[in-house]
Amino acid sequence: MSNQPKKQSFLGGAAILASAVAIVKLIGAFYKLPLNNILGDVGKTYFNTAYEIYSVLLTLSTAGLPLAISKLTSQAQAQGRENEKRKILRVALVLFFVIGLVGTVFMYTCAAQLAEFQNNKSAFWPIRVLSPAVFCVCLLACIRGYTQGQGNMTPTAASQVLEALCKLGLGLPLAWYLLHMGKTLDIGAAGAIFGVTAGTVFSLLFLILYLLRHRTHTNSLDVPSPSGDLVRAILAIGIPITLSGSAMSIITVVDTKIILGQLQAGLGLTEEAAAALKGQYSWAMDMVNMVASFVYPVTTSLIPYAAAALTRKDYAGANRTISTGFRLLALLALPAGIGLSALSTPIMRLVLPAQREAAWFSGPHLAVLGIACIFICIMILTNAILQTYGKEKIPIFTVIAGGVVKVVLNYFLVGNPDINIHGAKYSTLCCYGVIVALNLFFVWKYSPQKPRYISIFAKPVVASLLMGVCAKGVYNLVGGALNAANSYGGNALATLIGIGAGVVVYGVLVIVLRILRAEDVKGIAHGEKIARILHLK
Question: Which of 78, 151, 194, 275 could share a disulfide with 45, CB 3.0–4.6 Å?
Answer without folding.
Answer: 275
